[in-house]
Design goal:
By secondary structure, the chain is an alpha+beta fold. The chain is built from one helix and five strands. It is 12% helix and 27% strand. The protein starts with a strand and ends in a 22-residue tail after the last helix.
């Protein structure tokens, strides 16, 4: 099982980091200017993890950065396989 690591700012908890298990992440939400919600599976001790960061005007790469880290953590036993479809506007995870 691989983990992704979120390093905290030096002013928060002395710059320590939090880890999330890649195998238990089922969805990375759409980032806002200040946070992104990560949903974990039913076997996890928690339902969601909310990553909060300073207000940003360009937060478009945050979701890709998290998804890329999950792939590198081998959460899917290898790189995610791209489903080649056009014009997907959303995927609802419940």
């Amino acid at each position: 099982m691989g983990y992704i690591k979120f390093a905290k700012a030096a002013t928060t908890n002395g710059g320590k980091a939090d880890l999330l298990p890649c195998d238990q992440i089922v969805h990375v939400g759409v980032p806002t200017a200040t946070a992104v919600v990560i949903k974990l599976d039913a076997n996890s001790a928690v339902d969601t993890a909310t990553v909060t960061y300073p207000t940003q005007t360009d937060f478009s790469g945050i979701r890709d950065a998290i998804n890329n880290a999950i792939e590198l953590g081998n959460g899917a036993s290898g790189p995610a396989i791209l489903v080649d479809m056009v014009d997907i506007t959303s995927i609802a995870v419940a």
